[in-house]
């Protein structure tokens, strides 16, 4: 690891390859320190040669020039670290290079590890995610017109006459998944290594959920534990009791995770708090305060995970007992976490003027982000090239 860190040019091909993903990694000295801690030199070289989509070991051997036995050991090490995903399909295993975010940054903290200096990584990642503001990694992650993630509403807090679709219903997302697991919360685990704890009392373990094929990979590699759908629903209830905001993939079909996020630790919510108002796609609802009922007790201000509730400008000159709070609808995620703390019943969820509709699936979402960032054509070209190559190899 040491000479990889000091030979900065050795990381350039890896960074270039990671930056072909919908969400890349903005180059900086801190990023290179992070990558040098996660990838050894051989792993960095193999990762830099990965295609844009999944590949078999045979295909990777042709791209890297490494003997299959040597390559197998490298891929196994990378999968154990969460740097690549191994995806068994019948008698064949396909390998996919994991992006940085959402990807191996999070996987690095989904278990307690002795093979990585997690305290050093925690510090570097926190600094990296905030450096350069909108010109840095925060802008790369949150700056697209198509957010990677979306919030989910507490369905028991919406108006009686309103309904949520299957993809807007957190409970239905859990029921529809064919495999469930729980894992450590990346954000709170990282904060713990920085000597900080969640101000809302949310735990590090058994609170964030992974679903489907990604969950199977994480379970195989010891980064998650399988749970039943009923177990997951109980975790969801626990998260709501803590006032956490549910966040999932910004897609309608087969979301891969459901995180339960707090205002003090969550890196996703930190982006909203930094000014990326559209960094997380919103629910079809927005919180609204009745000034006649509100006594400005401050409970909703403390409960809002997006930090979008404050004193109404028209009440600033009034005595405290005559003031009322107001929600900024441009920032409000519409999660409903604030409603349950209001003892005056001054808060209500109301439908947004325009109901958000996420892309159908992950491929559709990624295609839109890639198009926006001018990165789509390499995927099309490589897909055509690989398809023609596989056709030629058919007997």
UniProtKB/TrEMBL annotation:
<keyword id="KW-0411">Iron-sulfur</keyword>
<protein>
    <submittedName>
        <fullName>4Fe-4S ferredoxin</fullName>
    </submittedName>
</protein>
<dbReference type="GO" id="GO:0046872">
    <property type="term" value="F:metal ion binding"/>
</dbReference>
<keyword id="KW-0408">Iron</keyword>
<dbReference type="InterPro" id="IPR017896">
    <property type="entry name" value="4Fe4S_Fe-S-bd"/>
</dbReference>
<feature type="domain" description="4Fe-4S ferredoxin-type">
    <location>
        <begin position="285"/>
        <end position="314"/>
    </location>
</feature>
<dbReference type="Pfam" id="PF12838">
    <property type="entry name" value="Fer4_7"/>
</dbReference>
<dbReference type="GO" id="GO:0051536">
    <property type="term" value="F:iron-sulfur cluster binding"/>
</dbReference>
<dbReference type="InterPro" id="IPR036390">
    <property type="entry name" value="WH_DNA-bd_sf"/>
</dbReference>
<feature type="domain" description="4Fe-4S ferredoxin-type">
    <location>
        <begin position="323"/>
        <end position="352"/>
    </location>
</feature>
<dbReference type="InterPro" id="IPR017900">
    <property type="entry name" value="4Fe4S_Fe_S_CS"/>
</dbReference>
<keyword id="KW-0479">Metal-binding</keyword>
């Amino acid at each position: 690891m040491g000479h990889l860190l000091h030979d900065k040019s050795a990381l350039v091909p890896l960074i270039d390859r990671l930056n072909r993903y919908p969400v890349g990694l903005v180059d900086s000295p801190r990023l290179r320190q992070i990558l040098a801690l996660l990838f050894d030199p051989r792993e960095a070289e193999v990762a830099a040669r990965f295609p844009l989509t999944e590949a078999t070991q045979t295909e990777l051997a042709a791209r890297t020039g490494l003997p299959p036995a040597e390559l197998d050991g490298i891929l196994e090490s990378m999968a154990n670290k969460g740097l690549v995903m191994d995806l068994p399909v019948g008698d064949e295993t396909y390998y996919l290079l994991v992006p940085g975010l959402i990807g191996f940054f999070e996987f690095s903290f989904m278990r307690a590890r002795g093979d990585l200096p997690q305290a050093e990584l925690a510090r570097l990642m926190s600094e990296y995610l905030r450096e350069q503001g909108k010109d840095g990694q925060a802008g790369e992650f949150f700056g697209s017109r198509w957010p990677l993630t979306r919030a989910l509403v507490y369905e028991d807090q919406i108006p009686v006459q309103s309904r949520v679709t299957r993809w807007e219903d957190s409970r239905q997302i859990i029921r529809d998944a064919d495999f469930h697991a729980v894992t450590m919360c990346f954000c709170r685990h990282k904060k713990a290594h920085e000597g900080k704890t969640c101000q809302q009392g949310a735990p590090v373990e058994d609170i964030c959920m992974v679903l489907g094929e990604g969950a199977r990979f994480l379970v195989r590699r010891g980064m998650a534990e399988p749970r039943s759908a009923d177990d997951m629903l109980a975790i969801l209830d626990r998260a709501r009791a803590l006032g956490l905001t549910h966040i999932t993939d910004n897609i309608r079909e087969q979301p891969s995770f459901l995180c339960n996020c707090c205002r003090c630790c969550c890196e996703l919510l930190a982006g909203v708090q930094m000014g990326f108002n559209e960094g997380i796609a919103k629910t079809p609802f927005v919180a609204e305060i009745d000034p006649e009922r509100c006594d400005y007790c401050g409970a909703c201000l403390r409960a809002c995970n997006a930090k979008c509730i404050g004193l109404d400008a028209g009440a600033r000159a009034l005595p405290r007992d005559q003031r009322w709070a107001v929600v900024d609808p441009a920032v409000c995620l519409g999660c409903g976490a604030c409603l349950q703390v209001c003892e005056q019943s001054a808060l209500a969820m109301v439908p947004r003027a325009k109901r958000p509709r996420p892309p159908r699936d992950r491929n559709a979402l990624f295609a839109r982000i890639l198009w926006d960032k001018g990165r789509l054509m390499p995927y099309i070209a490589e897909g055509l090239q690989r398809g023609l190559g596989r056709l030629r190899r058919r007997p």
